[in-house]
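Work Package 4 report. The design task specified in the project plan requires that, given a folded chain encoded as structure tokens, an amino acid be chosen for each position. We show below one input record used in the internal validation round.
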């Protein structure tokens, strides 16, 4: 087992996430030392570890650093690491720390020190470089054996666009070169699987500057894909007694003030629209739950009606900064496979477990095998950002943990990750490349029913407050499709893919038979199309392979005479020639098997 020694006296295995975090933060210091050696007078902002690697924000003055320059920085980092320098901690007073960086002429560090409380402050030194830092770090710099600086970006100091723009340099390091090689190979595979690239090749979605940033446009094949995902989940939900509802894309601002969304998400909402005559304020809908609360409240409810399960594929709108937008994974308009369950307290655990069953069925059908359940709780140190009583939070958190235990789910607890109105069970899924995504969420909520004064008449004739469960197995259709495309490299399950079969006649002479085969397939609920373009067979096969169509069927004279088709699977596997009826049975059987 590979282990690393750290300045706090610990020795940790490389696989420990905290070990990687410290290792990469130490690498940021090593890069800063190299930059200072190569660019005298450079000033430093912050240099944290990130999910994969590290960055440092630096002020190079009038100098520009290019991608080509990064090679020289890498070489210098390697040289410094091999010199066997160590990381040394030193404690100084706040006044001495300020004096040190004033003499050095580094205003960014001075600003950071100014914000610190009075008392001792820790420095870390590696070689000729000294930084303001809490630590710890790796003990020996020569543990950093493989170095790759990845990219350069601009970043405003403290994220304020009115402040100085700094140069952000990203990098990654490993204690072995083989690890770096594997990581770079994984990045290349991820580039090939980028859902934006695959979505374009499969003609699923596009974006338009005139429509607006972060507002996806679904093309016919993408709309078909979405429709099939919706229909799949609708059928599952119907078996569990969900009732479909539809709500508007806008809502009165007062609705979101009542729910608490305005206070907690107002900054991330699109600004209110004021009606020209009445002066009412409306928001583009950031959430569906307040609307569903009003549907529950639309008439008196009895305990005999509960649980009530309202489901909607509801499109919501949230403002994301343009720099944070990314394909379908970070957008300003997205559709949630949303549902809200209203139940009696004694029904809560059973209903929660049924939602877990739905999510696990979705994962099984779409071949997501590697996942864990994250119990997302309140931040125990800061209750100010949440609504509701401690009693209600305790009940909600206990219900989630009991339901997860009853289902035997492997869970991890994360504090501070709860929604502002209640704790959650978030499903963290690893894709084919080992990257983790949050897909599917279930939330217990005692608070919105109180804020909306929701009631039902119990068996005792008295009014009682229901408990609310929020759930979304996909999370959002946009994000789910993006993850699914990257997980499968665009090779979607046969039941789901927009085009299942493409038929290629060898020449114009056989178009009539090709059309006949196409009609037979479509009449058998197999999505088939014809490609009879005046292009070579090789080019047509290559282009349809790029579209990830599972089956390519070729027909010519022999096939027309015998009533057969020559079948080729996506990826080049030749399945030979077979009667059209046998091919139809094969496709139908494969779809049935996939859907269980």
């Amino acid at each position: 087992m590979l282990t690393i020694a750290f300045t706090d006296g610990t020795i940790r295995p490389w696989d420990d996430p905290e070990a990687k975090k410290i290792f990469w933060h130490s690498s940021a210091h090593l890069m800063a030392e190299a930059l200072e050696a190569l660019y005298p007078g450079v000033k430093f902002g912050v240099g944290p570890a990130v999910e994969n690697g590290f960055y440092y924000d630096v002020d190079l003055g009038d100098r520009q650093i290019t991608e080509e320059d990064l090679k020289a920085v890498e070489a210098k980092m390697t040289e410094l690491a091999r010199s066997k320098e160590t990381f040394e901690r030193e404690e100084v007073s706040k006044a001495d720390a300020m004096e040190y960086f004033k003499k050095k002429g580094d205003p960014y560090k001075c600003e950071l020190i100014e914000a610190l409380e009075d008392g001792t402050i820790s420095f870390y030194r590696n070689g000729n470089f000294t930084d303001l830092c809490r630590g710890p770090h790796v003990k020996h710099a020569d543990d950093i054996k493989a170095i790759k600086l990845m990219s350069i970006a601009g970043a405003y100091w403290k994220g304020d666009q009115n402040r100085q723009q700094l140069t952000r340099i990203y990098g990654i390091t490993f204690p072995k070169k083989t690890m770096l090689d594997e990581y770079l190979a994984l990045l290349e595979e991820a580039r090939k699987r980028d859902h934006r690239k695959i979505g374009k090749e499969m003609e699923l979605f596009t974006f338009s500057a005139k429509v607006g940033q972060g507002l996806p446009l679904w093309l016919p094949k993408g709309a078909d894909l979405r429709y099939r995902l919706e229909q799949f989940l609708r059928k599952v939900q119907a078996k569990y007694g969900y009732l479909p509802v539809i709500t508007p894309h806008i809502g009165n601002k007062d609705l979101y003030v009542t729910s608490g969304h305005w206070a907690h998400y107002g900054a991330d909402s699109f600004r209110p629209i004021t009606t020209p005559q009445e002066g009412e304020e409306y928001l583009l809908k950031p959430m569906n739950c307040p609307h569903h609360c009003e549907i529950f409240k639309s008439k008196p409810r009895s305990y005999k009606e509960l649980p009530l399960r309202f489901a909607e594929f509801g499109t919501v709108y949230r403002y994301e900064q343009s720099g944070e937008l990314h394909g379908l994974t970070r957008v300003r308009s997205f559709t949630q496979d949303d549902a809200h369950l209203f139940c009696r307290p004694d029904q809560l655990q059973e209903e929660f477990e049924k939602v877990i069953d739905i999510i696990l069925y979705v994962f099984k059908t779409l071949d997501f095998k590697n996942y864990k359940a994250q119990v997302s709780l309140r931040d125990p140190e800061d209750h100010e950002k949440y609504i509701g009583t401690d009693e209600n939070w305790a009940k909600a958190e206990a219900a989630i943990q009991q339901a997860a235990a009853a289902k035997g789910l492997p869970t991890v607890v994360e504090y501070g990750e709860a929604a502002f109105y209640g704790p959650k069970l978030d499903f963290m899924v690893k894709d084919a490349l080992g990257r983790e995504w949050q897909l599917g969420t279930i939330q217990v909520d005692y608070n919105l029913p109180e804020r909306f004064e929701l009631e039902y008449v119990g068996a005792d004739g008295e009014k009682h407050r229901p408990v609310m469960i929020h759930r979304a197995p996909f999370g959002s259709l946009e994000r789910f499709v993006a993850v699914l495309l990257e997980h499968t490299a665009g090779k979607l399950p046969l039941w789901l893919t927009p085009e299942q079969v493409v038929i290629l006649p060898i020449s114009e002479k056989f178009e009539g038979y090709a059309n006949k085969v196409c009609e037979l397939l479509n009449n058998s609920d197999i999505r088939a199309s014809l490609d009879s373009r005046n292009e070579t067979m090789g080019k047509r096969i290559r282009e349809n392979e790029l579209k990830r169509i599972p089956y390519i069927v070729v027909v010519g004279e022999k096939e027309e005479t015998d009533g057969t088709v020559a079948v080729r699977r996506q990826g080049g596997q030749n399945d030979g020639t077979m009667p059209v009826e046998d091919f139809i049975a094969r496709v139908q059987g494969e779809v049935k098997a996939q859907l269980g």
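The mean pLDDT is 92. Validation will be extended to a larger panel in the next phase.
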